[in-house]
Amino acid sequence: MTASNAVAPNRPPPIRIGLPVALLLLLLAVLVGALLTFAVRGQDRVAREASETIVRAALGAERSALESLVRDYSFWNAAVENLIFDLNPEWIPENLDWIVENSGVSRVFVLGPGRTPVYASLEAEPIGKQNKAWQAPLLRDLIARAESLPEEPGASLSAYLGFEDGIHLAAASKLLQEADTSGHPPYPDKGILIVTRKINEAFLEEIRADFQIPGLALQPAARAVTDRATLALNGPGGESMALLTWPSPRPGTRLLEGLILPLVFAFAVVGGLMAVILTRARRAGAALQQAFDARVAAQRELEYAARHDPLTDLPNRALFLEHLSSAMAHAERYGSSFTLHYLDLDGFKPVNDTYGHPAGDELLCQLAARLGRIVRAADTVARFGGDEFAVLQRSTGDRDNAGRLAQRMIDAVAQPFVIAGHEVRVTVSVGIAFDTGGEDAEEIIRKADRALYRAKHRGGNHYALYDAALDSGGIQQASKEAHRSNAVTCQD
Question: Tens of pLDDT along 204-214?
Fold first, then answer.
């Protein structure tokens, strides 16, 4: 047998895909790992920032509440009378000590003109004028800043102070007179009222429970913090007094720890799915956010429209009743007072008959603007409908003050209105009712309406005060159409 000389055909070289695939998978693993690391850190950062926002909001709510309290007690004639002009020791326990015992505050300081110590209390126990609490440097700094506040009821400030027993949240405001009814001359150097609340365990526990912030703690500002979220408590000059700390939320890290093992075996699939899911989730989230924003905007518009007059943009009857109820509650709690003015135009119907309803609408808008310029910012002007308006005059129950405001409104309305090139004149009648206690909002409006009937009965262009005779049949209850029989003067 002879040997064969045939040559076997060459086999194609094997396609080596192991290394490229491995490199591709390694690259994908690195990419997925980097993306996951970025996502985890981002989620942890967002969660930490969200927790800081919540804690900041909680402290902001406490500061707002304390500033509101100090404003309520600083804009008070009785406080100025009994603490500044004529110091009345018997008045203090029933009022200032009551703040400490019932309002959750820790300390109350009262300074007279020239930073003269008048009164101080420490957790319901008065302390002497020589107590070292008066000498706290940051307290003096807060007092100096309070002296520069504007002399208006809404002016106050707050900061964190350090005392011998710890950190306190303090709020300060000037002691102001509501009205000069005491017979004393106005005093140029105002007294200062300061209230504080200690940042103690009870304070922190309220925030933990109300805002779901476990592990919230207070520590000195000088101590280094690395693994906890922090928020600085700053003094009057911006200096850091202490730190609020709590465990930094790390939802992303916890999620990654649970996914490490599955990701080792299926990182490519997971990476692809995550890319798809994240893309769709972002799109869906954006669509949901847009829908939510649109719904919120529509809801706000509906709420605004339900509480305001569509023509003049003034509060309507519903919103006015809320303001009136609030004024009644404030009067009952603090002994303040208010006045209700009920307005109705005389001779408005001829404007519509002569020039048309658009002209009448324009007149009502101009009238609303005039009334807004006459009253104070704290007062409320509302339109009840048609040509009826109401004004809530706050912080006064004095008949002379009410009469002067009513006359100013009457004089303002009597000035000519220029409507579509025509000069139009109308007048207004005003009924006035005062808060006497024990009434609801509708009853006070009814009394003002009765007084308005009296003004109409006198021929209009007048104001009248409510008295009990109006409920005993002293005035005939004529219809409003009869009261509007006054003629309108129109000039081209």
Answer: 888 888 888 88
